[in-house]
Specification:
Length: 317
Amino acid sequence: MENILYLVIPCYNEEEVLPETAARIKKKMSDLIGRNKVDQKSRVIFVNDGSKDNTWNIITKLHKQDKLFGGINLYRNRGHQNALLAGLLTVKDYADMVISMDADLQDDINAIDEMVDKYLSGVDIVYGVRSSRQRDSFFKKATAEGFYKAMNSLGANTVYNHADYRLMSRRAIEGLEQYKEVNLFLRGIVPTIGYPTDVVYYERGERYAGESKYPLKKMLSFAIEGITSFSTKPIRMITGLGFFIFLVSIGMMIYSLIRHFMGETIIGWTTLMGSMWAIGGLILLSLGVVGEYIGKIYLETKARPRFMVEQFINEKE
């Protein structure tokens, strides 16, 4: 078996950072090839996720200048997870192992060496895990840690402090290909594939240039996507809450009857209104959660393609 490594890097409006990303990764890949860690057929594939800036032009220019670089151009923006999946499934037949990472240089590229070493020792999936969150703000750290804890408590087998920086062998990607859901949450899907796994710890750096593609709104949406894609516990919680409220209502009815027979039929207005607002809010919240699941069922039954590749440029030889 040849140790052909492909790097898959989703890009959305990354014109500011791409030249520096390409320069650093070229140096790392040249080092790995020079030390015979990976085959000279190894490549770096940038996935253009419908960028509105000059990202695709930069990718094509890099490809013309150096056969190490290639690109996948999607017809339109499909989101980070779909762009990443498009890259993995497109290159899997050319590679023995594939490492996915972001374009913003926050992932430490020096961790690639250890990932490759673990692959060569027989590991199929290697997770890049942040060693600490000291550079994060208190809010970001608290919300991130809360997200992972909530996901795992609700039944999703996620790897703590792992995003999408990982190595996957060809057979692991072939296993991933068997998952046909439209609502993608790769951080939850990959751990369910099986095969030998390991982790590599690294220090996450600052974004080199440009703006973050995950503001608070997208982070919340991503969290909801992950929870509803991998767990039915929220619906079960609603069932339990409904049962609890039913028991409380029986208790309140008994209490009201006792007050009635005692001749005290006027109950506090505040208690009544508070109960009505609380129950009304819970009903709306419950409908919203159920609606999330119904919406996902609706999208899954359509079975629309998760991505469409317009162009794939790659020097395979």
